[in-house]
Design a protein that fits this description.
This protein is α+β, with helices and mostly antiparallel strands. 48% of the residues lie in helices and 23% in strands. It is built from ten helices and nine strands.
Length: 325
């Protein structure tokens, strides 16, 4: 197994040959896009000029419409001319980054954690109307198997105005990284750890609202005041939940939350731990207007891998405290 903390120079040496090929492709895409925009601009402004000569509308207004149409069509042209480049970039460059990071990791750019698995964690109980994802990675850190991907789960609402027109709005249930790892213990019940937003907002009333959450199992009371302020825990068995959430694990979960600086959710179910990290960042994406040879971008991809794969170490999952029953 390749050391995930491999030195920077060795990491770069494995990536550079792939980058050089894609830098020439990136420049070719931008050249084709520039030609497309030029043709679009000539057609739009030529048409706007002819219309302004035959119309009573102010020339400035007609030209503004021409600029607007050029901008919209130019944006569409950018998407079309770079689509193949972006797909190839993920399939080759990001795959090379993942393999340079750790040789036995598997990367599938178009794949993602299944909706069935996401639902089974029961971290989010809202019904899902639209589900998508990308950038699936699986592998092993020392003795612990893991997998993760980016996920976006949404639900929709439909409203009708006074004129009978319907409007559909999409709302995010979860967007971010969904991580699953072997916890090496067969759980008898289901334990979930959720961000404690109710108590922060409503204080004592928030605690009452938590205990009245009829969609969840029993509210679990723990002995760590700092953890209780940050999270609320629900489970099917008070004893097992406290057994899982040892003082050491609660401390590590708090440190993990601080590291990501975002909401995190955890579920312990069927010998696995599910970790959902909210984020609006779209990881592992190519940037058309930035040189591929700019290693700062490549190291950003590596840092994202560090951040996510290190969850295994952050939660101390390689220390086998129990054996599976």
């Amino acid at each position: 197994m390749t050391d995930p903390k491999e030195n920077s120079e060795g990491f770069e040496q494995k990536i550079v040959p792939v980058l050089e090929r894609y830098e020439s492709q990136r420049k070719k895409c931008l050249k084709n896009w520039g030609i497309s925009v030029l043709v679009i601009a000539l057609v739009c402004f030529g048409g706007a000029f002819l219309i302004s000569q035959k119309s009573s509308e102010a020339p400035a207004k007609v030209m503004f419409v021409g600029v607007l149409i050029t901008g919209v069509l130019g944006f569409i042209a950018l998407s079309v001319t770079t689509k193949g480049y972006k797909r190839g970039f993920k399939d080759e460059v990001i795959r090379a980054v993942v393999h340079a990071y750790q040789a036995d990791l598997h990367y599938q750019p178009a794949n993602y954690i299944s909706e069935h698995t996401f639902r089974a964690s029961e971290l989010f109980l809202q019904g899902i109307d639209r589900y998508s994802g990308e950038d699936y990675v699986s592998g092993k850190r020392d003795k612990t198997d893991f997998e993760f991907s980016e996920i976006h789960a949404e639900y929709k609402t439909t409203t009708r105005d006074s004129k009978g027109r319907t409007k559909t709005r999409w709302h995010t249930i979860f967007k971010g990284v969904f991580f699953i790892a072997d916890f090496h213990k067969d759980f008898r019940t289901h334990t979930v750890v959720l961000p404690d937003t109710a108590e922060k907002l409503f204080g004592f009333l928030g605690k009452k609202l938590q205990s009245m959450n009829i969609m969840r199992d029993e509210l679990i009371k723990l002995e760590d005041p700092e953890f209780e302020k940050a999270f609320c825990v629900y489970g099917g068995d008070q004893v097992e939940a406290r057994y899982i959430l040892s003082p050491g694990l609660m401390r590590r979960i708090l440190e993990c939350k601080a590291k990501f600086s975002s909401k995190i959710y955890l579920a312990f179910l069927d010998s696995k731990v599910y970790v959902a990290i909210s984020s609006n960042k779209n990881r592992f994406e190519p940037r058309v207007f930035q040189s591929v040879n700019d290693m700062s971008l490549i190291h950003e991809y590596k840092e994202d891998l560090d951040l996510i794969v290190d969850i295994v170490d952050d939660l101390n999952l390689n220390t086998r405290l129990w054996s599976k029953e």
